[in-house]
């Protein structure tokens, strides 16, 4: 199964994500990548297109490479098969796969290392990042279309949710073609952020020695939530 045949998330998945803590798009993006990597490990390790993409990208990015170890009950064999050809291609690029190849490298000028360096760099983006970004675009467009038509379910779900983090809010506003949708997101983000800043103020106040005896409430993790809002969920 290739990335193009994976089922995208639906309108109802969006509504369900709104009921969970934090940025709903970050949550969906995490599930999207998890499902994509899991499907590749189970169904696409021998797929020529999947292997070719990994050779061009020199494997998945750092984050998604290590996520492979957490997406399957037994990822070892899948990782070995997926990465073997990519690693072999790097070995060939280094010119160390045989004594004859190493001799040819040594006979060339030092400028050959510029060529090697160029071929060691990824020639394409991480396939998991590409898939995630395509699906995030799909998720945001689905949300914006619902807001544009005044869908009560989407408006209510978003109003009750943690909203969008700043990176996904910015992305949504960049691709929005609807004044109504953009205005809804702007007002919602403003309300959520104003409340969060109030909690940060209270957290800072209670860290003053004069008020430490009051104990922390919901504001106790506001410092973590502002990181998640400004940068995206961990």
Question: What pattern of helices and strands is seen along the backbone?
Answer: HHHHHHHHHHHH
Report the structural category.
mainly alpha
For the biggest sheet, the summary is:
none
**Using DSSP, what is the number of strands?**
0
- Count of DSSP H/I helices: 12
Terminal-residue CA separation:
28 Å
How much is the radius of gyration in Å? 23 Å
Number of spatially distinct domains: 1
What portion of residues is helical? Answer: 55-70%
* Mean of residue pLDDT values: 86
Provide the fold topology.
Layout: H1 11-18, H2 24-43, H3 48-57, H4 62-67, H5 76-94, H6 99-107, H7 112-120, H8 127-148, H9 152-160, H10 166-175, H11 179-206, H12 222-231
Helix pairs in contact: 1-2, 1-9, 2-8, 3-5, 8-10, 8-11, 11-12
């Amino acid at each position: 199964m290739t990335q193009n045949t994976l089922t995208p998330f639906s309108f109802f998945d969006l509504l369900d994500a709104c009921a969970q803590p934090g940025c709903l798009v970050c949550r969906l993006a995490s599930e999207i990548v998890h499902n994509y990597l899991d499907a590749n490990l189970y169904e696409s390790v021998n797929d020529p297109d999947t292997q070719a993409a990994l050779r061009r990208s020199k494997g998945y990015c750092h984050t998604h490479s290590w996520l492979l170890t957490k997406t399957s009950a037994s990822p070892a064999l899948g990782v070995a098969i997926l990465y073997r050809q990519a690693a072999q291609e790097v070995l060939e690029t280094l010119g160390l796969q045989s004594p004859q190849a190493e001799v040819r490298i040594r006979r060339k000028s030092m400028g050959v290392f510029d060529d090697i360096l160029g071929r060691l760099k990824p020639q394409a983006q991480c396939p998991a990042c590409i898939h995630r970004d395509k699906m995030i675009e799909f998720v945001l467009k689905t949300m914006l279309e619902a807001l544009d038509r005044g869908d009560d379910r989407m408006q209510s779900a978003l109003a009750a949710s943690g909203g969008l983090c700043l990176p996904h809010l910015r992305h949504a506003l960049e691709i929005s073609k609807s004044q109504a949708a953009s205005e809804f997101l702007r007002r919602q983000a403003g309300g959520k952020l104003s409340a969060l800043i109030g909690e940060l103020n209270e957290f800072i106040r209670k860290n003053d020695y004069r008020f430490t005896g009051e104990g922390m409430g919901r504001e106790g993790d506001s410092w973590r939530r502002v990181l998640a809002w400004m940068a995206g969920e961990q």
